[in-house]
TrEMBL record:
Protein name: Orotate phosphoribosyltransferase
Role summary: Catalyzes the transfer of a ribosyl phosphate group from 5-phosphoribose 1-diphosphate to orotate, leading to the formation of orotidine monophosphate (OMP).
A molecular-function term among this protein's GO annotations: magnesium ion binding
Catalytic activity reported: orotidine 5'-phosphate + diphosphate = orotate + 5-phospho-alpha-D-ribose 1-diphosphate
Family according to the record: Belongs to the purine/pyrimidine phosphoribosyltransferase family. PyrE subfamily.
Organism: Ancylobacter aquaticus
Pathway(s): Pyrimidine metabolism; UMP biosynthesis via de novo pathway; UMP from orotate: step 1/2
Cofactor section: Mg(2+)
GO biological process, one term: pyrimidine nucleobase biosynthetic process
Binding site residues for 5-phospho-alpha-D-ribose 1-diphosphate: E116, D117, I118, V119, T120, T121, G122, L123, S124
NCBIfam families: pyrE_Therm
EC number: 2.4.2.10
InterPro entries assigned: OPRT (IPR023031), Orotate_PRibTrfase_bac (IPR006273), PRTase-like (IPR029057), PRTase_dom (IPR000836)
Subunit structure: Homodimer.
Amino acid sequence: MTQDEVVAEFRAAGALLEGHFILSSGLRSPIFLQKMFIFQDPVRTARLCKALAEKAEAAFGKIDYVVSPAVGGIVPGYETARQLGAMAVFVEREGGTFQLRRGFTIPPEAKVLMVEDIVTTGLSSRECLASIAEHTSNVVGAACLIDRSNGKADLGVPLVALARLDIPAYPADALPPELAALPPVKPGSRSIQGVKA
């Protein structure tokens, strides 16, 4: 799947929004990728995650476990794991940090891939990877549908993405005038999970 095809999937799903958005990182952007509009369609989700699984397997080889951060990473993590024939588990926030819960375990010898939905600054991905590191040192890399940092986010492990986009993001005190003129909207989920942006 080409980068243009990935963007076309987001457009067709109504998941590429324009306006003034407060991202979960706290940065502001004129573009928001509402991935839940993708994930409400199982066929579209399977198509994208199949392409992501193929790209991840080409980069990292056979994967045994896929670990994703809750909430946004659960659906693409599960579907990518299904396409890889791997186990799917997720970490969720407990006391402000990601933890494996619900009795999930990761065998120390398992080859682990961290799967995320969208990477902007890489903060939640790094937090997820730190949680995984408490259980295994065998993380082969990370994968996401869209890397909106265009390769600038440093996760500490190799990252494969279906699309790398250069979508601008600004601190709240450094907005361009055309963005500052629009009312901000906060569509992300991090604050819902009890973490301040």
